[in-house]
Amino acid sequence: MDRAEKADLVNALNTTFAEVGVVVVTRNLGMTVAQSTDLRGKMRDAGASYRVTKNRLAKRAIEGTLYEGIGQFLTGPTALATSADPVAAAKVAVDFAKTNDKFEIVGGAMGDTILDINAVKGLATLPSLDELRAKIVGLIQAPATKIVQIVQAPAGQLARVIGAYAAKEAA
Fold first, then answer.
1. DSSP-based three-state secondary structure for 49
2. CA–CA gap between residue 9 and residue 54 (Å, rounded)
3. Mean pLDDT for all residues in the chain
């Protein structure tokens, strides 16, 4: 990799750090190509990305961004999982670490907040942005549904009473 390619990679990583909501630093000791491909596919499905980079280049890319604090985690064979949704990358990384002993979470960051391993695991237990939106819509919609049911109940009762009188007189 020549200097121009390295500079392009640093710029691309810097742009990524400006756009994402969370960065999870992982260590992948001896993962096979199939395992890495599987992890990348799961990340992509969740709207996240997984990238193995040279630590020196990643440290240059985080300079001047909110994620400067993750430089302390960039030692050894590391990779970066990133996503705009603050929960997606953490959730996939934690789930994958449960099933693969060669993959471990080192730490991460949400903006300028540094996350240790336990904080990343805690973040993974939160509902995703789409799940939160669905819950909010459900909460907003529930009172309207109850109001309609309450308004319709007296009319339904009145109709049943009139129907009972009509049936009584017809008999």
1. strand
2. 10
3. 85
Sheet holding 78-83, edge to edge: 48-52, 78-83, 22-28, 103-110, 113-115
Residues 6 or more apart in contact with residue 162 via CB below 8 angstroms: none
The tokens for 17 are 């750090």
Burial label for 21, CB within 10 Å (0-12, 13-18, 19+), is middle
| Rg, C-alpha atoms of the chain | 26
Angle at 44 between CA 129 and CA 52, to 5 degrees: 115
Place of tokens 């020549």: 2
pLDDT 10s digits, 145-154? 777 667 776 7
Digit-coded pLDDT (tens) for 56-99: 988 888 888 888 888 889 888 889 999 988 888 999 999 999 98
For 62, 78, 86, 112, the CA distances from 13, given in Å and listed in that order, are 8, 15, 18, 17
- In this structure, which amino acid lies at residue 169? E
User: Which amino acid, one-letter code, is at 135?
Assistant: K
